[in-house]
């Protein structure tokens, strides 16, 4: 697969994921095949796509059963959370539409009632993002914050259906950003750990040769690491690298 095809493949994969999210996090095999039609993927390549989608909590043909990707603790938490919301979302379509119109008009009471009416949806949406490094309660928390802000951002839209679509997108975007930020923090923590370990290994080796603790300057001269890298590692470890003098 050439570079241009790889770019198109990655773009198409994101489009497929986006479409699946609009369909309760599921997509049909026919939709996947249609999306990748121009790339003429083999059956084996399509199977790899299906596997990738399943790993990202996207069902092929139907939504995945929560039992397949939620832990028992998460299932229990979700059930208890939703029990606490009983009675808050029991609105008719007409009542719900009226709330959206009120929120779009900037009515504070309608916005508050709309928040309560949508809390259970936030919980349902959180299931789509479970198992990606962020706990359900954190996902729901981020979703609820986005919901509270989102109900005040609907005034530019033309109808209730469009407003509901935008509100759900705001909630989903918030959860995706939460996962992305968590991933960035994990990557940063991993880089910090690797840097500290590299400096610690170098210090240990040199200390054995010299039979004493070594200075940052000595370690830099011996290993080629910069003095800044070594001093950063010392600070990030809380000055706990035992073979390095402070």
Write the layout of secondary structure elements.
Elements: H1 3-21, E1 26-27, H2 29-35, H3 43-55, E2 59-60, H4 72-83, H5 93-104, H6 108-128, H7 136-150, H8 160-210, H9 216-223, H10 227-236
Parallel strand pairs: 1-2
Helix content: 55-70%
Give helix and strand order, one letter per element, not per position: HEHHEHHHHHHH
Q: Tell me the distance between the termini.
A: 52 Å
Number of strands: 2
Structural class: mainly alpha
Overall mean confidence score, pLDDT? 88
Q: Tell me about the largest β-sheet.
A: 2 strands, parallel
Side-by-side strand order of the widest sheet: 1-2
User: If helices are DSSP runs of H or I spanning 4 or more residues, what is the number of helices?
Assistant: 10
Radius of gyration, whole Å: 25 Å
Shape: extended
What does the model show?
The chain is an all-alpha fold and 246 residues long. The chain folds into 3 domains: 3-60; 67-183, no CATH class; 186-236. 68% of the residues lie in helices and 2% in strands. The chain is extended, with a radius of gyration of 25 Å.
Summarize the structure.
The protein is 68% helix and 2% strand.
